[in-house]
Design goal:
The complex is a heterotrimer of chains A (about 600), B (about 300) and C (about 325).
Chain A: H1 2-21, E1 32-37, H2 52-61, E2 66-68, E3 77-79, E4 87-88, E5 94-98, H3 121-132, H4 151-159, E6 173-177, E7 180-184, H5 192-195, H6 206-212, E8 226-227, E9 236-241, H7 256-260, E10 276-281, H8 285-293, E11 299-302, H9 307-310, H10 319-323, E12 327-332, E13 335-341, H11 346-349, H12 352-361, H13 364-372, E14 377-378, H14 404-416, E15 428-433, H15 436-450, E16 456-461, H16 463-471, E17 477-483, H17 490-493, H18 513-522, H19 529-545, E18 548-550, E19 552-553, E20 555-560, E21 564-565, E22 581-582, H20 584-591
Parallel strand pairs in A: 1-10, 15-16, 15-17
Antiparallel strand pairs in A: 2-3, 4-5, 5-7, 6-7, 8-9, 9-10, 11-20, 12-20, 13-17, 13-18, 14-19, 21-22
Helix pairs in contact in A: 12-14, 18-19
Chain B: H1 2-6, H2 24-37, H3 39-59, H4 93-129, H5 131-146, H6 149-159, H7 165-175, H8 178-192, H9 195-202, H10 207-243, H11 254-264, H12 271-298
Helix pairs in contact in B: 2-12, 3-4, 3-12, 4-5, 4-7, 4-8, 4-10, 4-12, 6-7, 8-10, 9-10, 10-11, 10-12, 11-12
Chain C: H1 3-32, H2 36-41, H3 47-57, H4 63-76, H5 89-124, H6 129-142, H7 146-160, H8 177-207, H9 210-217, H10 222-250, H11 254-260, H12 265-274, H13 278-306
Helix pairs in contact in C: 1-4, 1-13, 5-6, 5-8, 5-10, 6-8, 7-8, 7-11, 8-10, 10-13, 11-12, 12-13
Classes of the chains: A alpha+beta (about 600), B mainly alpha (about 300), C mainly alpha (about 325).
Chain lengths: ~600, ~300, ~325
């Protein structure tokens, strides 16, 4: 009996070892990009790509009119499927695009003979109507809601019909000829062009949508650099180079900082630079880390709040990692973390002094050290650096750094607010998402408030639960972050715009008439010094009124292996894989050290 | 995944009717003497006792009261000063582990009690009254147990808007009663037609008197065995709750400590995982062995072997 | 009672169970779970679009109509599409069930075989130090948290020692084998303990039966008794016990799947719960209830087939 068990076990072990010893070797002459993402991908339909993960996948196959220049900062739009930047009418309401000629959709059996046809202006009209389709309820509709003349009316009138009529003309969205596309806006929307660089508005072909019907999301067919014949919901997605991809070249100009680190080595080469992309969906952080360390993933983005737990030896990589050719790239990202007050509560609403006291008691530098390894930038207000509206060098007078005089001032303000030493205050709840780091940040906040006698109770919630609580106003304080949808301060300041109150983006419910007035004016202005001045004014108000306890502007941390070329961090990842390259020779060399 | 196996208790399948009737007094005294002669059972009992005492002392603030204090650099490795090293905030892992006993023992106790009360009540009612009552209760627990565990546990935690110890108690207590309910129902059915119950009826005992005074004491051994097992299942399940983000808040628990380790191992910080796992393993092991010993001592069927 | 009638009656009994399970889920999620439209629209949710989406998802219809939908889907197996991913649920289940089974079934099978062998062995040496020792080891193995096994196993055996794949999955045999080896081993660590304890109890039950005593008094070899009599008779409870476990295998093992990157049903269920994706939650509940009832039925029928003493009622 014993022997039998033993035989069985040893058989099993032998089986195991024989398999692990003959793991498949990659063919070295094929350039393969191995990526890891941390969340399941829903499907590849542009109009539903409202999360980072789906939108990155969509952008491998589909393309839009515009894109962000890969190597320029501050972020600059450049034409992608458009032949040039659009002509804008004087009133800023009409945008006319010329579309590239000769761009082909990928071959697919939805087309006659299985050959992709040429992209036309009509495809954009169709794709954008599809985003507005009331039956489909595209998740990016917020982007164009109320912006394009006649599109809202079209959406509304078709909602009641049995079948949505795409042939009905929409005034503000027309193809003037095969290669000319014209948008007419309902009101000034200076951020309009950004929306054409977002995956929601990427070009899809009507034949394909009709052919696959509801299964369209699993059969992506675009004009982009990579092909995915079918998405089968597994945790590994394999894309191959699109053989009919148009001639698109690696950029030859770049911002100085990128030139300096050799990002132009591949300048002028036809894109894409790799033959295959393998996207591994790895939900848990431990296997993601271990796979990266083994070189099975080319680069890994470290969760922004996770730096300290992630990088073994702090700011600089240890010699060990360097020897293996691993490098750490730290770059600013367009976001802000904050602890929001619920301004519906009388406790916080008119009580600026209480809010200021809490902000002063919170040592942002120490939090930076604990959670971001001193790499983040303490936020003075809502707008991150790198976009107009951020005031370089501005110091928020109510920003705490752990100094004794700040604590003294905090205590004084608390006294003036009517709560000497925190007496009279209820226990204040602090809600945050349930990740380990969010919880730790919450505990840190609690510790900081205890210094001035304010009692905090940290409560973690699964993400949807937190959202629900915020919408239903069942929170007192909550810790959260906002990442930019597009590089414009408007995207941040709208978080403090009264009419955007929850369930809108303004979850704190902050409502300041002066702020609202300034925002309404600025929202209609093109990018001018006048608008920047308004943005800066709002930035200052936000800083002094302390509608939130500001956290930090985080940095993105990316670890990459020595064989990965052309990687630059970006807040708008769509299309990035097109530019990445793999040095196969170096990979063989370095892999041996791992 | 442990759910798959723990929910099927061995006792459920004993189909042979129990032939011997024991007076409860002799059963208990016999059980006590059996237990006290069993060194394994005694050791287990002592271990569980030590844990309970630790939990009590920490709840009263006598030990590990300063668990939140920063005593050294972040992630310091185990040393003579700090036997189990330090965590991200430089807090002593040993102190956190000790403080975690409080959560573990209270979770085991309260969740165990909740499932015990529900299981015994429903099981006894179904078994004793039979008929429609029985059908409804059997339908209810069959239905209940056919809902996937994860769905049920998250739904229960949603009911309690706020997360915390109470949610953990409820989530684990409300999901753990089905096995006991089944067992009690079967046992009560077996007992209700016994002579002693008929005798009690003859001298004028009402239904509830018969059920609670006469029958229940005779099925108590099943309750106790099941409680000791449910206790350890609850302690283990707390880890899963922490993983799902539904765990205990604002104070250390073994579940959150183990969950934290998923960010730590890649940088070779193994002590937090090690300490919490070890602490949990010892008490769960002791509870399991105690449960076995209790079964041997109390289950008349196995007696004398 | 005729066995066909019995089976049909039991199958009809699934109806109230499924209705009840869906009812409980429906009430729980309608009353307390976060608004699914809020989750779907994410950070750009506006009151207007949420209202439109509610209408489109049919959330504005009466509760009664919504509940009827569930009942209908339980019989037609047409679960519709997920709200969160827009994928067809039937295909999600098909895609997920196989990976789940490639992990749980080998685990279950090996665990059963190994546990039966070990328990035969220890009941042969019952009461000795060997018996106590093995039982102690088994109980120790099951006393360690599953998450601890996973974290440590993945870090130490897969990463440090390189014996296994760290994570990932390939569909099709034998491609998936290297990826499920470590998860299966962890599964074994977790399940062998309880299995051995259970089988040992069953075998000891048999060993003390009269027929064994008779056989022994006839002078039969102890080994012959163990295999010929004890194992044969113990097979009845063993089979029923194993059959009852099968439904849990289909639903997958959440933690193992998430950490080892196996695209199974456990992960799908968790995602659904976290995004209030009611159609998927409903489908998983129906699936689970059906599987549970069917396999319980099989187990009962098997019982009567192998043991004529048991009567169906």
């Amino acid at each position: 009996m014993k022997r039998r068990t033993f035989t069985l076990l040893s058989l099993l072990l032998a089986f195991a070892l024989s398999f692990s010893s003959c793991t498949k070797k990659q063919v070295t002459n094929e350039k393969v990009l191995n990526l890891a993402v941390s969340s399941k991908v829903k499907g590849l339909d542009p109009i539903y790509s409202n999360d980072l993960y789906s939108s990155s996948e969509v952008a491998r196959v589909y393309e839009g009119l515009l894109e962000y220049h890969y190597l320029k900062r501050p972020y600059t739009l450049k034409p992608n499927l458009a032949a040039a930047m659009p002509e804008v009418s004087k009133d800023g309401l009409t945008y006319t695009f010329k579309i590239l000629k000769g761009v082909m959709f990928q071959d697919d059996k939805a087309f006659p003979n299985g050959k992709g046809r040429e992209l036309t202006a009509e495809d954009f009209v169709y794709s954008i109507k599809r985003l507005a389709d009331p039956k489909l309820q595209g998740l990016g509709w917020w982007l164009l809601d109320g912006k394009i003349a006649g599109l809202d009316a079209w959406r509304k009138s078709n909602a009641a019909k049995d079948k949505v009529d795409y042939s009905e003309k929409v005034e503000g969205l027309q193809a003037l000829d095969r290669y000319t596309l014209q948008f007419k806006l309902a009101k000034a929307f200076p951020q309009f062009l950004y929306s054409l660089a977002m995956p929601f508005t990427y070009a899809t072909a009507k034949e394909v949508v009709d052919h696959y019907g509801a299964e369209f999301l699993n059969h992506p067919v675009g004009t982009g650099p990579f092909v995915l014949p079918e998405f089968n919901q597994s945790l590994k997605i394999v894309y191959t180079k699109n053989p009919t991809f148009r001639k698109k070249l690696y950029p030859s100009d770049a911002s100085e900082e990128f030139k300096a680190i050799g990002m132009l080595e591949d300048a002028g080469k036809p894109l894409p630079l790799v033959d295959k992309i393998i996207v591994n969906i790895i939900v848990e952080s431990q296997p993601r880390w271990l796979n990266f360390n083994k070189g099975k993933i080319d680069y890994m983005t470290i969760p922004k709040d996770n730096f300290d737990a992630a990088i073994p030896s702090g700011k600089n990589l240890s010699g060990d990692l360097k020897e293996k050719g691993i490098s750490l790239l730290i770059s600013p990202s367009l976001d802000v973390t904050y602890t929001a007050f619920n301004h519906d509560l009388d406790l916080f609403k008119g009580n600026t002094k209480l809010r200021q006291a809490m902000s002063l008691a919170y040592n942002v530098d120490k939090s930076n050290e604990l959670f971001y390894n001193n790499q983040a930038l303490p936020a003075q207000s809502a707008v991150p650096p790198g976009i107009a509206g951020h005031i370089v060098g501005y110091q928020n007078p109510y920003r705490g750094h752990g100094k004794a005089e700040e604590l003294a001032l905090a205590k004084k303000l608390l006294l003036e607010a009517g709560y000497p030493g925190g007496k009279g205050l209820p226990e204040i709840t602090y809600d945050c998402p349930s990740s380990t780091v969010s919880r730790q940040i919450g505990e840190y906040f609690k510790k900081q408030m205890a210094q001035i006698g304010i009692k905090i109770k940290v409560m973690t919630n699964p993400w949807p639960e937190l959202q629900k609580k915020i919408t239903k106003r069942q929170v007192m304080l909550y810790g959260i972050a906002w990442g930019a949808d597009y590089p414009d301060a408007e995207n941040f300041l709208q978080l403090l715009f009264g009419p955007n109150k929850a369930p809108g983006a303004n979850g704190s419910g902050y409502n300041n008439p002066e702020m609202n007035r300034l925002f309404t004016v600025a929202a209609l202005l093109q990018d001018t010094p006048e608008r920047t001045a308004l943005y800066e004014k709002m930035t200052r108000i936000a800083a002094e009124e302390v509608p939130w306890v500001f956290g930090v502007h985080r940095q993105s941390f990316v670890l990459s292996h020595g064989w990965l070329k052309n990687y630059v961090a970006t807040d708008f990842e769509a299309g990035q894989a097109t530019y990445l390259n793999v040095n196969t020779k170096k990979k063989t060399e370095l892999s041996e050290k791992l | 995944m442990s759910n798959a196996t723990t929910s099927n208790s061995p006792v459920a399948l004993n189909t042979e009717p129990n032939k011997t009737v024991h007076k409860s007094k002799s059963l208990w005294s016999h059980a006590f003497s059996t237990l006290s002669r069993d060194p394994w059972a005694l050791t287990s009992l002592i271990i569980v006792g030590i844990y309970a005492l630790t939990a009590l002392l920490s709840a009263l603030g006598f030990v590990a009261a300063d668990w939140a204090a920063e005593v050294g650099p972040s992630y310091a490795a185990p040393s003579l000063d700090h036997w189990f090293g330090l965590d991200i905030f430089g807090r002593s892992v040993l102190a956190k582990t000790i403080k975690g006993t409080e959560v573990a023992m209270s979770v085991g106790l309260v969740a165990g009690l909740i499932s015990m009360v529900i299981g015994v009540t429903l099981g006894a009612l179904a078994g004793y009254f039979g008929g429609k009552v029985d059908e409804v209760i059997v339908w209810f627990y069959t239905t209940f147990s056919s809902i996937p565990y994860i769905i049920l546990i998250v739904a229960i935690s949603f009911i309690r808007g706020e997360k915390g110890l109470m949610t953990v108690f409820l989530a684990l207590g409300l999901t753990g009663w089905v096995t006991l309910c089944r067992l009690i129902r079967a046992e009560v059915i077996r007992h209700k037609n016994r002579e002693y119950v008929h005798a009690a009826a003859a001298i004028g005992g009402g239904d509830f008197r018969k059920l609670f005074i006469h029958i229940l004491p005779n099925v108590m051994h099943i309750v106790i065995i099941n409680f000791s097992l449910q206790f350890q299942v609850a302690i283990k399940s707390e880890v899963i709750l922490s993983y799902l983000g539904l765990g205990v808040q604002g104070r250390p628990s073994w579940g959150t400590m183990i969950d934290d380790a998923k960010l730590e191992l890649a940088r070779e910080v193994w002590w937090q995982l090690g300490a919490a796992t070890l602490a949990m393993m010892i008490v769960v092991l002791a509870l399991n062995l105690l449960g076995d010993a209790l079964r041997d001592a109390l289950d008349p069927k196995l007696k004398g072997k | 009672m005729n066995i066909q009638v019995y089976v049909i009656r039991r199958l009809l009994y699934t109806i109230p169970i499924i209705l009840g399970a869906c009812g409980i889920i429906f009430i729980l999620f309608n009353l307390v779970s976060p608004d699914p439209t809020l989750i779907m629209l994410g950070k750009h949710a506006s009151a207007k679009q949420m209202a439109e989406l509610r209408e489109a998802l049919g959330l504005n219809r009466s509760y009664w109509l919504q509940y009827l939908d569930i009942v209908k889907s339980a019989f037609t197996f047409d679960f519709g599409r997920s709200w969160a991913t827009k994928q067809e649920i039937t295909s999600m289940i098909k895609q997920g069930a196989i990976p789940s089974l490639t992990l749980t079934f080998p685990g279950f099978f090996l665990s059963t075989v190994i546990s039966i062998c070990v328990s035969l062995f220890v009941s042969f040496y019952r009461g000795t130090f060997l018996d106590r020792g093995v039982v102690f080891i088994c109980v120790t193995m099951m006393s360690v948290s599953s998450l601890a096994y996973i974290l440590f196993g993945q870090w130490f055996f897969a990463y440090k020692l390189g014996w296994f794949e760290i994570s990932g999955y390939e569909s099709g045999f034998p491609d998936f084998v290297p990826y499920v080896l470590l998860p299966v081993l962890i599964w074994l660590m977790l399940t062998i303990g309880p299995d051995v304890r259970f089988y040992r109890t069953i075998m000891l039950d048999e060993i003390y039966q009269d027929y064994v005593r008779t056989a022994r008094s006839k002078g039969l070899n102890e080994k012959v008794i163990m295999f010929k009599h004890v194992l044969k008779n113990a097979m009845i409870p063993i089979i029923t016990y194993t059959v009852i476990q099968i439904p849990f295998l289909i639903l997958g093992a959440l933690l193992l799947e998430n950490f080892f990157g196996i695209p199974g049903l456990g992960g799908i269920t968790l995602n659904a719960v976290n995004s209030s994706d009611f159609p998927v939650i409903r489908a998983m509940t129906i699936l689970s209830a059906l599987a549970l009832i069917v396999f319980n039925l099989i187990s009962d029928v098997l019982y009567t087939v192998v043991d004529p003493r048991v009567r169906l009622k």
